[in-house]
Design brief:
The structure holds two protein chains of two kinds. By secondary structure, chain A is an all-alpha fold. Chain A is 71% helix and 3% strand. Chain B has two domains: 214 residues, Response regulator (Rossmann fold, 3-Layer(aba) Sandwich), CATH 3.40.50.2300; 155 residues, Response regulator (Rossmann fold), CATH 3.40.50.2300. In chain B, β9, α10 and β10 form a beta-alpha-beta unit. Classes of the chains: A mainly alpha, B alpha/beta. At the A-B interface, α1, α9 and α10 of A face β7, α8, α9 and α10 of B.
Chain lengths: 295, 398
């Protein structure tokens, strides 16, 4: 029983980790309608920034989020402005997806060039210490990630629902042409949203860096799982991504124990395929809005 | 003396000197560019030092050796470069290759051309597993690594813990590419042969970000000896998550890769203390068992102005020395003469700079090739097994 509870706790904590990566991904997809394959590399860049800042200035890695999240915002905004926006008028929208795949490969190889293939270790500053909840062991860092993921989801929901900018973002997502007629600058909204999505993963990277060794390829695994979470939760749904991540975290941990560590990915991706076949809109998804297709 | 005779004399002496420098050509096929370039170059340095040493001592069969480099940047280019070395450069044999997949590709070309191919560094079973006539391998393999870990349990760990080896509960975990899978397969097979109780063998992708379920599984099964064949990320993850789950096996034996690197030790700190590792011979080893190692280090420093970046150069040096001296002891450079010469090589253990002997047995694999058992002690990776090669005591139990 103790083992079972421990696995469930591990699964939930893992889910929190996936969630904080998935939220930004689903935000970008939901609004800009671009699948950002470079999202994992944004995480990797954020983790290296956290590593450099926290070792260079000898500060707690969490504090570096104040610099890393804005830096990632800029990276995301530039990606939208310089890479995606010029391609928005392209006849075939898949070009944008290929562009993010290219960006992903470029960033990964750039990191290999700059940092080498060796891992970089962000000092833990105590976040690897354990707390006991009854018989269950959890790292304080994992709890912080979990809490931050919840706050991020709530914060984003409030922002989207309550602020003028948030409403403008949603309006643009719902009907780009109508939003433009209402005087909304859709290009600016896309840049803002892409930056925001990247800033979310920037915040996540400062929280994740002290828990995992950073390497140029760290993003690839995270982003694959994050896709599954986003699809499970319903493409574009922020709370959906969060709950999708918790489900995937639990499935991952339980199948890793009861079925075998070599098959856990097979289980996760089988679920992914089943959702696509049986309920393509996901748990929280609504019907896809394709109004952006019209100019 | 007229100007004409002077010119003729100069031309003739230049020709003679040139000929003496390029008497017999050997190909050196390594990845010199691309992702594997660092350790490819490091491997090549070993061959270069061996050739320098042999040429300084008069060459082989009275002739100086000239190395012709080929860049095996990927599998296709490995094939192309092997063809070029053989047909255009007319090399008598090829030495290489560091990467197993490139070795497998290029040696196929050499085999068809009937040119001997000496593999000095690639570990995959298939390199020698194809029964090629002209392929020889001097370095230890995935099988050597698997057997060595099991032998270490039998010879040191069980006696050190004061229990029968068959009473130990052993868990084998490995990253699931060809490397980890084949080492784990040999561990399982050889362990069963020796009557060990291996309760689980589990693979995982080396890019994984969570091993907590695997750790809990091992803990649940009462595993007290863990064998992990891994890269860097997964070594760190396993050690960290084991500590976090309160899983404390009596011994952890890593297989090369992540466990030999200082960066891994820096990542996990004190958790690395006492962890064991089986890998190619490194430099903290008893030099009585590895004669020539100190000279190698001096020669390396003189030529390249730095310390070796890994053990690859040493192992390639040892392989190249054995093969080239073997050829030197033979007669002629025709393929069959070279094959006959290297088949006669018979160097016992403890007489090369890497410690292992050289003798080509079944499938032209060096059946005396071995790895070393090492242990992290006080933040340093020191050789502890076999005892002849050890520089420190094997620390196990209390």
């Amino acid at each position: 029983m103790d083992t079972f509870l421990q696995i469930v706790a591990n699964g939930l904590m893992l889910g929190g980790l996936f969630a904080i990566v998935a939220v930004g991904l689903t935000l970008i997809f939901g609004i800009v309608k671009v699948i950002n394959f470079a999202h994992g590399e944004f995480l990797m860049v954020g983790m290296y920034l956290t590593f450099l800042l926290s070792t260079g200035m000898d500060v707690h890695p969490y504090l570096t989020a104040a610099a890393v999240a804005p830096a990632l915002f800029v990276l995301g905004a530039l990606t939208q402005r310089l890479l995606i926006q010029p391609l928005m008028s392209a006849r075939d929208e898949h070009v944008q997806i290929f562009a993010t795949v290219g960006l992903s490969t470029a960033l990964m190889n750039l990191a290999l060039l700059v940092f080498g293939a060796d891992i970089a270790n962000t000092p833990a500053h105590g976040v690897r210490s354990q707390v006991m909840l009854g018989e269950v062991r959890i790292l304080t860092g994992q709890l912080w990630v979990f809490g931050a993921a919840i706050l991020l989801v709530i914060g984003l929901q409030l922002f989207m629902k309550k602020t003028r900018t948030g409403r403008a973002i949603r309006a643009t997502a719902q009907n780009r042409a109508a939003a433009r007629l209402m005087g909304i600058n859709d290009k600016f909204i896309y840049i803002l949203t892409f930056g925001l999505g990247a800033a979310c993963v920037g915040l996540g990277s400062s929280l994740i860096a002290p828990l995992y060794p950073t390497s140029p390829t760290i993003g690839t695994y995270f982003v694959l799982i994050a896709f599954v979470c986003v699809v499970l939760g319903g493409l574009g749904s922020i709370p959906g991504a969060f709950f999708g991540a918790l489900v995937i975290g639990l499935v991952d941990a339980l199948s890793g124990f009861y079925i075998g560590s070599d098959l856990r990915e097979a289980v996760v991706f089988t679920i992914f395929l089943l959702i696509l076949i049986l309920k393509p809109s996901g748990l929280f998804g609504t019907r896809m809005n394709l109004s952006h297709v019209s100019p | 003396m007229t100007l004409k005779t002077l010119l003729t004399a100069t031309a003739v002496s230049a020709l003679v000197a040139g000929a003496a420098q390029a008497d017999v050509k050997f190909g050196a096929l390594y990845p010199f560019s691309g992702g594997l370039a660092l350790l490819g170059e490091e491997s090549f340095r070993g061959v270069e030092l061996a050739v320098d040493e042999i040429n300084a001592a008069g060459g082989i069969q009275g002739e100086q050796i000239e190395l012709v480099r080929g860049d095996a940047v990927d599998n296709n280019q490995a094939i192309g470069e092997a063809r070029r070395l053989i047909s255009r450069e007319d090399v008598k044999a090829i030495l290489g290759t560091y990467s197993s997949s490139r070795s497998i590709a290029a040696s196929q070309v050499a085999e068809l051309s009937g040119i001997p191919y000496f593999e000095l560094g690639a570990v995959a079973d298939e390199v020698t597993g194809r029964d090629l006539q002209y392929l020889f391998r001097t370095n230890p393999t995935a099988e050597t690594m698997g057997i060595m870990t099991i032998d270490m349990i039998l010879d040191e760990i069980a006696p050190g813990l004061g229990v029968e080896a068959s009473d130990l509960v052993i868990g084998v975990i490995h990253e699931d590419s060809a490397y980890g899978t084949s080492v784990a397969g040999h561990q399982e097979e050889y362990g069963a042969e020796k009557g060990l109780n291996i309760v689980t063998v589990q693979g995982y992708p080396s890019s994984t970000v969570d091993m907590s379920s695997l750790v809990l599984d091992l803990k649940d099964r009462g595993v007290n000896i863990v064998l992990q064949t891994s890269y860097q990320n997964d070594s760190v993850l396993f050690l960290n998550q084991s500590a976090e789950a309160g899983f404390e096996p009596d011994a952890i034996i890593g297989g090369g890769g992540g466990y030999s690197l200082t960066a891994t030790e820096e990542a996990v700190g004190a958790l690395m203390e006492g962890v064991l590792d089986v890998d190619f011979t490194q430099y903290a080893v008893n030099t009585e068992f590895t004669p020539g190692l100190e000279d190698f280090l001096v020669a390396y420093q003189n030529k390249y102005g730095e310390e070796p970046r890994s053990g690859h150069s040493l192992n390639n040096y040892v392989g190249a020395m054995a093969v080239l001296e073997g050829i030197g002891a033979g007669e002629g450079f025709e393929p069959d003469q070279i094959v006959a010469a290297v088949k006669a090589i018979d160097i016992p253990a403890g007489e090369t700079a890497a410690g292992y002997g050289v003798h080509f047995g079944d499938q032209n694999q060096n059946d005396r090739a071995m790895m070393m058992g090492m242990q992290w002690q006080g933040g340093k990776l020191v050789t502890v097994y076999p005892r002849d090669a050890a520089v420190a005591e094997f620390q196990i139990g209390d």
